[in-house]
Amino acid sequence: MHKAKRVEIIIEAVMEKRLTDALISVGVTGFTVLPVSGGSGRSGQWSREGQVSRASGMVAVICLIRPERLDKLLDAAFAVVERHIGVVNVSDTFVLRAERF
Amino acid sequence: MDSVLSLAAANLISPIVLSFVLGLFAALARSDLNFPEAIVKGISLYLLFAIGFKGGVGVTGHGIDLRLFAALLTGVALSFALPFVAYLLLRSMTSLPVVDAAAIAGHYGSISIVTFVAASTLLSGMGTPAEGYMVAVAAAMEAPAIVSALWLAARGSKNGGSIDGRLWREVLLNGSIVLLVGSFLIGWITGKDGLAQIESFVVSPFKGVLCLFLLDMGIVAGRGLKDNRGLLSPGVAAFGIVMPLVGAAFGLGAGLALGLSLGGSVLMMVLGASASYIAVPAAMRVALPQANPSISLTLSLGITFPFNITLGIPLYMTMAQALMR
After folding, report:
1. CATH code of the domain in which A83 resides
2. CATH number, domain containing residue B144
3. For site-directed labelling of A52, which of A35, A83, A92, B324 has its Cα 20 to 30 A away?
């Protein structure tokens, strides 16, 4: 098994494309986007159920990368998410096929 | 006064409004009644297509005249102007920060297409025709308010937002506008022959589907009110009722100046009175992220939308009737 970093960014759905474009622009071409059902934070509670607009929805963007590429990814991600509602967290993980990251 | 009350009473016991009330009740009573996101999106696509298509067919019936273009321009001007009125009201009635006031003002310059659809349905049920091109006016009024809101935020705060080319494209080509304008053009091009081919899809089930959509809107509005009621001060909540009345007065002035029919004037009032919860919230999240979305969405969906659907539309109808008789 090989060491890697798992970066999970929960961000407003309207910012999803801007974030993934920023990641691609710094060479992070592998990521997964997941819908988020709902939650609560400083701006109050929200749920994706019944919503017509993406304005109040959130998505989770998950990247697994080599540890040495972490700073570049975070710089690109922060340029997009800094002013927006959301959560960014980084954790240590392991991957089985290192050549893919 | 009697006519307002009787019209309001008839409106209140219509299946559309009662569906909304049911949704509101379900949410406030903490029922687990829910619409999956995909179904709501499907319903909203259907409603936009149907209303756009029928509006286009309506234009073939009335023909195109200068008034169409004048109505479009007036709609755009109203959408630019109303945020300034809303902003002044908010700054005098509430203690909201500049950025929140500007973001909310943007919502009130834009429109709620569901309120427009509900008003159109009420008008057609009363046998009061409206100009078909009012659908195009509605589409034209979606975006200009965003520019006014961002200008107000930039003028009053160091943290004002900006609008770049990408945001422009997202706003002007957002799915609702593309579908509304596109189906309007399809209806216009294919006319009554086209309508005859898909009438059983866009006409007969329309009210039933609208009921389901209003049921969902009631749930969303109720949950927003329940979860975020602490964010709305009495001044902010009062603004949610006062601003639609002011916007409707502007709409009525525009309708009279343009020489629109009674139905067209009522729809112009509804466009002036309603507040966006689709196009503007998304644009504000991108361009003005420091504004609290819970305040603007709760106000627009939890206060103004129910007011317009229940009492506002009959009131606007009565005001227009009184002045245009």
Report:
1. 3.30.70.120
2. 1.20.1530.20
3. A83
Total Cβ atoms within 10 A of residue B112: 26
Whether B255 is covered by a domain: the verdict is yes
Which one, of B14, B45, B56, B29, lies nearest residue B189 by Cα?
B56
In a domain, B221, yes or no: no
Any CB–CB contact under 8 A between B162 and chain A? no
CB contact under 8 A, B34 and A85: no
Which residue from B137, B165, B159, B160 is spatially nearest to B149, judged by alpha carbons?
A: B160
* Residue B224 maps to a domain: no
Residue A96 tokens read as: 């089985």
CB contacts, 8 Å: B35 with chain A: 49-50
Are A50 and B219 within 8 A, CB to CB?
yes
Q: Based on the structure, what is the number of domains in chain B?
A: 1
Residue B293 contacts residue B107 (beta carbons within 8 Å): no
Q: What span, in angstroms and rounded, lies between the C-alpha atoms of B288 and B100? A: 9
For B:28-57, CB contacts with A below 8 A are 34-37, 40-41, 44
Report CA-CA distances (Å) from B240 to B135, B246, B274, B307, B311. Answer: 24, 11, 10, 8, 13
What are A38-42's contacts with CB under 8 Å, separation 24+?
A41/A85, A42/A85
User: Both tokens of residue A86?
Assistant: 């959301």
Owner of token pair 């071409």: A29
Q: How many domains does one find in chain A? A: 1
Residues above pLDDT 70, as percent of chain B: 95
Complex ipTM over 0.85: no
For CA atoms B294, B177, B82, B8, give the dihedral sign: negative
Residue A64 lies in a domain: no
Question: Which of B279, B289, B292 minimises the CB distance to A84?
Answer: B289
Domain that holds residue B234: 35-212+230-324
